[in-house]
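step 4 of 6: structure.
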Amino acid sequence: MRWVNRQVRRSDRLMLGALPILLLVVVYLLLAVSRHAENPADKILPLPGAMAESMYGLIFQPDQLSGQLIFWADTLASLQRLGLGVGISTLAAITIGLALGILPPIRATFGPLVTGIAVIPPIALLPILFIALGLGETAKVGLIVVGIAPVMIRDIAAHVGELPREQIIKAQTLGASSWQVMIRVALPQAMPRLIHAMRMALGPAWVFLISAEAIASDVGLGYRIFLVRRYLAMDVILPYVAWIALLAITMDMILSFASRRLFPWAHGVGH
Amino acid sequence: MSTLLTLRDVWVEYGDKIVIEKLDLDIAEQSFVSVVGPSGAGKSSFLRLILGQEAPTRGRIELDGTPLVPECGPDRGVVFQRYSVFPHLSVLRNTMFGLECPKAPLSGRLFGSARRAARDEAAAMLEAVGLGDSFDLYPAQMSGGMQQRLAIAQALVQRPRILLLDEPFGALDPGIRADMHALITRLWRDYSLTIVMVTHDIREAFTLGTRVLALDKRRHDPHAPHRFGATVVYDLPLDKPVDAPEDKDHSITIDENGNN
């Protein structure tokens, strides 16, 4: 049988998917054990016990200076920044993207500006944001927005612009005004695409969040990773990275589930 | 019968390319006009003119004696070959769309008793096109024939002065096409519609129409083919018995399952 035709059953799929991950873990453990055999104080590849021990402190024991549970304070701060950044960008994408996509005069006026902003590397704007907005929360959220909003806006605008002309015409022959074409024809059809755009934007959003936190912050997942790097504390960095991965996967799954649940018509409901 | 649509000396030009030249035409109320012609002979441009999707370069188009605004409006309904239903709305909501828009300028949605009235009107129209038991389906769950039925119901619920069909049955297979022919003929008779249908299918044009228009170029310059536009080269009124016998069975499907 050709490989392109080999379908994998659901149970087998879970097993096959877990295989490379388990393999990676085993390889890591082997390497860590062999390094510790040579040097019991090795910090580069910590053993699971060491990781659990230092994470226990961060998760359950209040920090002596601030009295906070550091792990949860970091998570909360980062999620808040990420949520604000992605939320503002999503709002901008659906309003501006919709108007750009469906109203030719708006597209002609603001299309080039959005394209221009979208091609600037966002990190190059970070100094401007720090100068203009200070080193506080606003600048970090601002970086995420500057980084992902233009891409999302362009994606939504392009999607709305590609709606079949026939649909727009049909809506008008049914008595719809420009506003009604926007909210009853274009907006609902842009919603699944918006969720898709959010899923695509979450990756870059994390990059900008970690960057902003690494440069100027006093709390946050990215801040912690870059802080403990100075002590080669891989026993904190590795669990933090795994936690970020877990958060990202969870968000992606929630969005994907929401899209299928809210917009079944967009996901090939069965014939 | 009185004249509904008048075209006088209508020209359509794109730059120096002439698509339609010197088109003079009167379309009577309650007629079923089929438009045929080779590809590129301006059939689509002709339809877009009447639809208001584009304006004539020269000349004048009148609907009911008033000049036509070059913008689509609710007085002209349309069914395209594809994409003329909204994929994100159920069958019932698709049909209610035309009833909701004019009455709810801000939200585009009706509530309460107005909504129930619109729902009942839409439901009646869906019964008439044979979608009586598919109210909650989405277009993606329906066959091509059912989608076209929906598109027709959607247009008719608006009670347009004139119904424009742009190769509406071109993408359907022959059996279903025959069903749709019976359906559109019945609707045309029941609702006293005026229909302009563009088609590639000569047989369809003659079976359905009360008048067949052939669009083509009258003259041809081999060195500058784009300098002459198309116009009506044949205008054939078809004498049909006015009171054609009603279809024997009332069902609009010819197969027994009725599942086209």
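step 5 of 6: annotate
 - The beta strands of chain B are 3-14, 17-28, 32-36, 58-63, 66-67, 76-79, 162-166, 195-198, 211-217, 230-237.
 - Chain B has a mean pLDDT of 84.
step 6 of 6: archive
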